[in-house]
Amino acid sequence: MMGQHSRSESLFYYFRIGDHVPENHLLRLIGQHISFDFVRERLADFYSDTGRPSIDPELLLRILLIGYLYGVTSERKLVEELGMHLAWRWFTGLSFDQEIPHHSTFSKNRHGRFQESDVFQQLFEEVVRRCIEVGLVEGSHLSVDGSFIQANASRSSRIPREQLQEVAHVKRTVREYLAELEQENPVEAHQQDQISTTDPDSTYFTKGDRPAELGYFDNYLVDNQSCIILGVHATAARMSQETAAAQEMIMQSAVRRGRFPLSVAADTAYGSGEMLAWLEERGIASYIPVREHAARKDTLYGIEKFTYDAETNSYRCPEGKQLKYVGVKKANRSHIYRATPIKCGDCVQKAACTTGRYRQLVVNVNESARQRARERAKLPAFIAARNQRRKVEALFAELKNQIGLRRLRMRRMKFIREQFLLAATAQNLKRLARFLKRMPLRSAAVPV
User: Fold this and answer.
1) Which has the higher per-residue pLDDT, 286 or 186?
2) Between β-strands 285-287 and 203-205, what pairing exists: parallel, antiparallel or unpaired?
3) Other residues' Cβ atoms within 10 Å of the Cβ of residue 190
4) Phi then psi for 102, rounded to 5 degrees?
5) Cα gap 118→110, rounded to integer Å
6) CA 146, 148, 151: angle at the middle one, nearest 5?
7) Helix axes 239-257, 119-133, angle to 10 degrees
């Protein structure tokens, strides 16, 4: 006999939300092993002792994290979905008779106490510390990389820099941007000729055949073994900013762990002489391809054909002729060594050495570090590190495809940092929860 389901509703239900959340659910794993009580302690000074009680900041933070864990980029949509998801309600501690915070509450707290207390950075650091404490992070071999994230601004919003003062009279974003510049008085080596009136902090960037877009760089420092993000840094979309961000993240990681890593892997964008020397000075082996400033013709002699004489600070060519030291070229931080037209004019090997009247060597001031990096690139460990570095690219793919940060939702650098920090925290929480799942379950949530 065919049955028929009745859609009538009962007046009363006996219902406990926790009974309907599976034991292996991601939010249950996070809730069992990690406590966010520290949020109230960190924000205590930003609340008054009198007046009407506010919405619990831990509740707001838990709701925000859900958005990044499940790729819900709109706070309106997040609040709407929260009313329908049992697991989300269980994680936030909201019962059916409790009101869900209005979506505008998140913006008010983000622009106020959350921004002033730097709670998102603290949350990220606490989760990383927890990953280290439980033994998830090995920390000796790291990888670093950056990825371009498109800004919430169009190319048509760019105007010449000299027109900013005029636009500031009618556009608050530009007015605030100019006021901050005047207060900070930054010395920027590479200023853009045109600035976006929608998001003045965004940078016009292109790479390869990709059309130029406005955006930012999201930089990650990752533990190779666990794929845990140890550092996250938002920068302008400039190649020069990647190495500066990498150095800062490595230093912060060293302070956290009390030691520098044994090795760091990266792509060619980090292979400048300055970066390679910086790593060597700190005892870090660099598994990074050397960035050559100019493509060298294979038919001409390279620097390996010349012999350096430290006593005279000069080089000898294969024919034994001297290339004297001329000085430093500040533009590319290189030492210049030159022969003369007379020395090279009747040389039997001139055709294989140079196409000019005389041979000139341009030697990077950190050439010794560059040469050691070239030798290291021949080792099996270099290939292994290169393969491990691909984990960073997988994290960026997760960031864009699952978390939804292919294009940013907020604007201005201070709020871009917030998005990057929360996204990295969500990525770490997923891996931490799955790691702790394999450990004996504890009786209560362990404080982060």
Assistant:
1) 286
2) unpaired
3) 9
4) -70, 150
5) 10
6) 140
7) 50
Kindly give, in sequence order, each residue whose CB lies less than 8 Å from that of residue 415, ignoring residues fewer than 6 positions away: 110
Please state, for a pLDDT cut of 70, what percent of the chain lies above it.
Answer: 87
Pairwise CA distance, residues 54 & 277, whole Å:
52
CA–CA distance, 253 with 139 (Å, rounded to integer): 9
C-alpha dist (Å) from residue 306 to 53, 303, 311, 352, 360? 76, 5, 15, 13, 11
Beta 194-196 vs 203-205: how paired, if at all? unpaired
Q: Which residues contact 62 (CB under 8 A, 6 or more apart)?
A: 36, 91, 92, 93
CA 370, 371, 377, 379 dihedral sign is negative
pLDDT digits 0-9 by tens, 244-297? 999 999 999 999 888 999 999 999 989 888 899 999 999 999 999 988 765 554
- Going 266 to 270 to 272 to 278, the CA torsion angle's sign is negative
Tokens found for residue 438: 């394999």
Q: What sign for the dihedral angle of Cα 396, 400, 402, 408?
A: positive
Cα–Cα dist 245/11, whole Å: 59
Q: Mention every residue, 6+ apart, whose C-beta is less than 8 A from residue 447.
A: 35, 37, 38
Domains of the chain in start order, with CATH, are 139-291+374-410 (3.30.420), 303-365 (no CATH)
Cα separation, 331 vs 187, in Å, equals 18
Residue 4, φ and ψ in degrees, nearest 5: -135, 125
Separation CA 202–CA 151 (nearest Å): 6
- Beta-carbon contacts of 443 under 8 Å, excluding residues fewer than 6 positions away, are none
Amino acid letter at 301?
Answer: Y
Question: For residue 233, what is the enclosing H or E element?
Answer: strand 229-236
How far is residue 382's CA from residue 267's CA, in Å, rounded to a whole number? 12
For the record, the structure tokens of 174 come out as 């530009």
Instruction: Give the Cα separation of 273 and 374 in Å (integer).
Output: 11
Best CA proximity match to 106, nearest among 142, 145, 62? 62
Residue 204 near residue 183, CB atoms below 8 Å: no
Q: Which pTM does this prediction carry? A: 0.82
Percent of the chain whose predicted confidence (pLDDT) is above 90: 25
Bridge partners of residue 229, in order along the sequence: 222
First CA to last CA distance, the chain: 56
Output the six-digit token pair for 367: 């050439």
User: Any idea what the Cα angle at residue 245 is, between residues 242 and 248, rounded to 5°?
Assistant: 150
Taken in order 230, 236, 240, 244, the sign of the CA dihedral is negative
* CB proximity list for 46: less than 8 A, separation 6 or greater: 112, 113, 116, 117
